Structure formats: structure tokens, C-alpha cells
Amino acid sequence: MNQTMDVQKDKLMQDLRVVMRDAEDLLKSSGQQLGDGAALWRERTQDRLTQVRQQLHALQQQTTDSVVTASRSTNEFVHRNPWAAVGVASGIALLAGYLMNNRR
């Protein structure tokens, strides 16, 4: 499940980068077509895109830090309590099997 979330997160980040790149390209081309009257609008939009890019980077860093912290905590727990970890994993597997069996 962690790998699926990582793949989805990476796909979302890639899509957001593509949208931002397209918006920047649109700003550049609109400036050439609209003339100097749109310079203020273009500047404000460019500033906002810069802010969004910074916020996106901060969000990515926070998410990465959270995942690393959770991974370290899980690793420490498993090393300190190996049999408890096996028991928890077995319980989750039994519950998942029961739910999938009753789903039919």
C-alpha cells in the first residue's frame, strides 16, 4: 500500500509540474500576443505561480519527512518487538481474508 501511495504522490507531483510549466508557457505567449497592457497581469500571475511552486516544494518536503519518520518508527518498533509485529501482521491478514471472503 505504501508503494501505491508513493506512485500516486509522484504522479500528482509530476502532473502539478506539467500544469505549472504549461501555465508559464501560456503567460509567456499571452504577453507576446496581448502587448504591454497585460504586463501587470502577467507579472502578478508569474508571482503567484512562483508562490505555488514554493508551496508545492514545501508540501513535498513535509510529506517526505512524514514518510521517513513513520518508516523509522515502524522499523524501530519491529526491531524492538518482532513477535508483536508478526502478530499484528497476522491479525491484519486474517481480518482482510475474512472481509474479502464475506464480500462475495
Mean pLDDT: 80
Q: Low-confidence segments, ≥5 residues, pLDDT <50?
A: none
Shape: elongated
Per DSSP E runs of 2 or more residues, the count of β-strands stands at 0
* β-sheet strand percentage: under 5%
Share in helix: over 70%
Count up the domains.
Answer: 1
**Cα-atom radius of gyration:** 23 Å
Q: Give the helices and strands as they follow along the chain.
A: HHH
Q: Distance between the terminal alpha carbons, to the nearest Å?
A: 23 Å
Helix-strand makeup class: mainly alpha
- Main sheet overview: none
Question: What is the count of DSSP helices, taking H or I runs of 4+ residues?
Answer: 3
Give a structural overview.
The mean pLDDT is 80. The chain has one domain. It has 104 residues and is mainly α. The chain has helices at 2-34, 39-80, 82-103. Helix 1 (2-34) runs antiparallel to helix 2 (39-80) and helix 2 (39-80) packs across helix 3. The two termini are 23 Å apart. It is built from three helices and no strands. The longest helix has 42 residues, at 39-80.
Task: Tag the structure with descriptive keywords.
mainly alpha, 104 residues
Task: Set down the secondary structure blueprint.
Blueprint: H1 2-34, H2 39-80, H3 82-103
Outline of the structure:
With 104 residues, this protein is mainly α.
